[in-house]
Amino acid sequence: MAQNLRTITIVEDDLALGANYREAFEREGYAVTLHASREAALSAMANGLPDLVIIDVNLGSDVEGGFELCRSLRSQSDTLPIIFLTARDSEFDAISGLRLGADDYLTKDITLPHLLARVAALFRRQQVLQSQHEQTPSKLQRGALTIDENSFSVDWNAQRVDLTLTEYWLVYALARHPGHVKNRQQLMDAANTVLDDNTITSHIKRIRKKFVALDADFDEIETVYGMGYRWRAG
Predict the structure, then answer these.
(1) CATH number of the 136-231 domain
(2) Is the CB of residue 36 less than 8 Å from the CB of residue 15?
(3) Which residue ranges make up each domain of the chain?
């Protein structure tokens, strides 16, 4: 039975705090490993990635270690769920983490039940992905945009857009009904996770940047101020 456990890697230089997190997740039935440094974590994950990674930004004297670790992991996998859990609570740091491809950015004042709920939401999303893989392949076409619902890939003008899981679901939610405004709650429901306004804004900015890197004229995602976002109709 143990082989079916969801695996979580926690990278936290405060080992006592990390042990508390590990024990909380283990009580929920997860298999958890704990590392105190970027180097130890990368070494342990060299031969295989866990189902989810939780990273502190400051890792001892390696003050940007968490960011560098996220960059390394994202280069290995576009779909690995990555959460920052850190004492660094500035908007600049949060945006930096999300731009590197993290699925969530949380501060350490979060309660354990809330943290467990955020992780459970990401795993529920993985279950949706797995169940949809078993269904008949389907593609969504919106002009130059192609979304392959079976492989969870997005192409723009026949070029692959490398999106994280969160970014994929946000694009899918917007493009599925062009011209329809999606508010924060609807986007959270689509991504099957909990996101605040700033986090959604950061994800949308990052998504736009990825499309613009392929097409400088890309302007399909519109901001409807005070309401949300929509994929341009027609």
Answers:
(1) 1.10.10.10
(2) yes
(3) 2-131, 136-231
Question: What are the backbone angles phi and psi of residue 228, rounded to the nearest 5°?
Answer: 155, -140
Tens of pLDDT, residue by residue over 180-194, are 999 888 887 777 666
- Indicate the burial class of 132 (C-beta count within 10 angstroms; 0-12, 13-18, 19 or more): middle
Nearest residue to 176 via CA among 151, 145, 214, 206: 145
CB 147 within 8 A of CB 175: yes
Q: Interior CA angle at 203 toward 217 and 229, to 5°? A: 65
Distances (CA, A) of 146 to 128, 203, 205: 20, 20, 20
Q: Which CATH architecture has domain 2-131?
A: 3-Layer(aba) Sandwich (3.40)
User: What is the DSSP secondary structure assignment for residue 177, as one 8-state letter?
Assistant: S
Enter the tokens of residue 201. Answer: 């804004």
Question: Do 70 and 81 touch, CB atoms closer than 8 A?
Answer: no
Region 30-59: mean pLDDT is: 94
Q: What's the CA gap between 189 and 117, in Å, rounded?
A: 14
User: In the predicted model, what is the mean pLDDT of residues 72-100?
Assistant: 88
> Residues 201-211: pLDDT tens digits?
888 998 999 99
